[in-house]
Every structure is written in structure tokens, then in C-alpha cells.
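#help-structures

NK: newbie question. if I give both the sequence and a SMILES, will the prediction place the ligand too? trying with S-adenosylmethionine
OV: yes, paste both and it writes out the complex. here, I ran yours:
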Amino acid sequence: MSEKASGMSAGRGSVSSSGVRGGRRVTRYRLRLERVVPGGKMLGHLPNGKVVLVEGGYPGEEVVVRVQRERRDYIEAVVEEVVRAHPRRQKAFCPHFGVCGGCAWQDIPYSVQLELKRAIVEDAFVQVGGFTGLAIPHVLPSPVTEGFRNKMEFSIGDVRGEPVLGLHPRGSWERVLPLEVCRIIPVEMEEVRSAFAEFLRRHRIPGYNPHYHRGLARTLLLRITKEKALMVVLVLTRRDESVIQLMKQELYPGLRHVVSWYTAVNPKRNESLSQGVTFFHLWGERYIEERVLGLRFRIGPRSFFQTNLYQVDRLFDRVLEIAQPEPTDTVLDLYCGTGTFTLLFAPHVRRVAGVEIVQEAVERARENAQLNNLPNAVFYAGDVKRVLPRLIREGWRPTLVVTDPARSGMTRSVLQVLCQVRPSRIVYVSCNPVTQARDCAYLVHEGGYTIQTIQPIDMFPHTPHVENIVLLRASSSSLVA
Ligand SMILES: C[S@@+](CC[C@H](N)C(=O)[O-])C[C@H]1O[C@@H](n2cnc3c(N)ncnc32)[C@H](O)[C@@H]1O
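OV: that's the protein plus ligand as C-alpha cells.
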């Protein structure tokens, strides 16, 4: 591999070098990273004003970046060298930091991460939502920043004929980085992860090779509750009785925290477990049970559940505090998953309906309503854009709407119905402030809502992800200038 650098210069935003590497032209710039933007990239400018979106680095740093893609309006680049580092950079606590695709921000203190997340929410509401004069408060920190995840999907790959269990390295969905340890999962989960890694190695169970779509073992899905009850799902490309028997003989008796055992078959080319995967219960419980604010939630292998063990109570508590439910309220919980918010509101209101597209999640939600003896909570399976108008036709007149859509946000037709029905409050929870800001702008301009409260909360330490709660009220009082 030959590399020829030329034209080195030290000025802000100047071309540092350009050359040829492995037959491809490489361009580098030296520039100052100005601010963080949604998604966690840093923004800088070239002297000609062109925007550079940079992966890696922190605001205020002077860096040399390598151009990855040149678009018409901006350049995408990665940090290659930090010339002047953020004064608060620190040593990451994980030995895999920098290589593993998991935690990008471990090398900056948690307090700085929170400030960056606040800035991301602000950027979305100003740049995308067009809001001015919004005061975005500090992000509510996670009480614990290691061992906090209650769910993890580890990938199983193949390195020169040996099975390896770990996570994808940064920027690669094909390779698997074998892990010595993962510090963001609880120790009980870590014990199970390393037992499986050793088990796969000992029996040379072929790991999955995505290039040839070959191999047997693909994913190890682990879930855990606050009480340390674990669920294990070993995902294979086909059902394999000999592997199941080996698991029963060697792992089942020794892993005392595991109360629920599954295998699953994923014959597809992609790794996603949300569709096209069949789950088979093997031994123990079918569900693990989590408690949040005194409510019981049964969690199955496919159930969506907030992933931070120690922050979920606070998220729910804040949502309730912000919504201020009344005994006379009729509530709709849109995109309700397994009905967590639905059940949270049920004891405080007249009646509540959850709407969710995944039939299995709705079944779990109904079970959870029964488990908690909440007959005023009902659930409807289907797409919100079809079920919401139907519920309105059938006479539902929500006074409060809770909405927690997927990253893509709400569709235009759903927003239109909300603007027509005009519940007095809409509590909008989202893990994507960009689509949330877009939708809030629509509700403000087309529905006459005002933003009354914004509260970001951190469910995902060491990553650029941020959860955000917004209260919109159909009244004149507002935070918006
Ligand atoms: C971010 S999760 C929210 C889950 C729930 N609020 C909770 O905290 O457990 C988004 C949910 O929306 C569901 N969903 C996505 N698109 C949908 C649609 N068009 N109609 C109804 N539900 C949908 C997903 O299946 C998922 O359960």
C-alpha cells in the first residue's frame, strides 16, 4: 500500500494532504470541530464554507480528518488524528473502546456526554423544528453508567474457522469482534456471555459467515431484570438438536441466573430478530418479569422494553409527572409496544387504549393488563394511521395522547388526525429528536399546540443517543418565544 502525502498546511479548515492509498485517492483536511449534531457527528467547515460532517472527535478539537464521501453540499469524513484534544478527554474504561462499535463516547466524562446530548436536542429543535427561544434543560443522567443494559444481542461470527462471540467493530456489519468483556452489561449477563463464548469454542460450533451465508450460530440474545433473572436465546440458522442437547447438558445446570431458555431460527441474510425469525421455548419460564413503579411487566424474547435497567423507573416517573393525568382523562397510547405507558397511566385515568402494530406485543400487553388487574386498559393491534381514525369514529375522544413512535416519527396522516381531534395534552416521547422536532413543529403550526415542557433523559450512556419527552398543550401558555 503506497501513500503519498503532499501540501501539508496547519491552518483551520485547510487541506492537510492528499494522496493515493491502495489505488484510491485520499484527501485529508485539518479543521476545528465546531459542534455536535443529531446522530453524534461533529460539524466543521472548510475555508470555502463547505460543511464537513465528521465521525469521531469532540467540539473544540482540532483534528485531521480523512474524507470518506464528497457530496454536493457537504463532506463526510472521519477523524484520523487529534491535533488539539478536548481538555476533558479521558481513558475509556473498556479494553475494546475504539474498535468496538458499541460505545463511541467513553473517552469523555459522563457530564460532558450529557451536555453534548442536550446540544443534540437543541440542534434538532432549532434547525429542524425551527423553534427559537426554547430552553432545553439538562439531560437527566442515568443513575448508573456501567452494567446498565437489560438487553443485548451479541453476534456470532467465524474467524478462520473458529466461532467468535462479540459485537461488530465500528463501521462493519460483517465482521465480529470477539470480546474479553462488555462493561455496559450487568456482571450476571457477562457471566452468561462468556460461558457461551467458551461453549461455542469448545464444541467448534460454526459461527455465521455473512459473505457465504453459511454457519450455524448467529446471535446470542440476552435479557435480564433488576432482580437478575436472565433470558437466553441462542439464534441459529436452522434448528439443531445436537447443539440444544449440548446446551442442556453443559450450560443449563450451571448458569443459575438463567430462568428462561430459548432457541430461535434465523434463516435470512440479515441479523434483525424483529421479523422472519422463529422462536422456540426450550426450558424454564416463557417470560422474565420486570417491575416498574409497582407494575409488573412480562417480557418475552421479542418484547420491546426500555433498555436501561436503572433509568426506566425515572423515565416513567417523569412521563407521569409531565402528563399530570386526571381521573377524568381518556388516554390514547400510540405506538404502545407491550403497553408500558398504557399500564402506567391506567391507574390514574378513566380509561386508556394502547395501539401497536406488532400483534404479539399486543397479546403481551393484554396479559400485562390482566397481571396488574387493570381492566380500564384496552389494546388494539394495527397501524396507528388506520386504527386511530377508527377509534375516533367509534367515539374515543382522547383528552391526553401519549405517543412514542419508532425513529421515523409519526406519519403526516396521524398528525392530521391529532390536529383535528385536538386532545388538550400530547406527551411525545422519542429516541430521535430530529423527527420529534419535525412532528412538534407540525402540531404547533397546524394544530395550535404550544410546547410546554421539554425534558431529555439519558437511557444510553456512552452513546450519542438521547430520549426526549415533550409536552404539547392546546393552549396559549408556551416555552416558545
Ligand atoms: C419506541 S417503541 C415504543 C414502545 C413503548 N412505548 C414502550 O416504551 O415500551 C415504538 C413501537 O411502535 C411500534 N410501531 C412502529 N410503527 C408502528 C405503526 N405504524 N403503528 C403502530 N405501531 C407501530 C413498534 O412495533 C414499537 O413497539
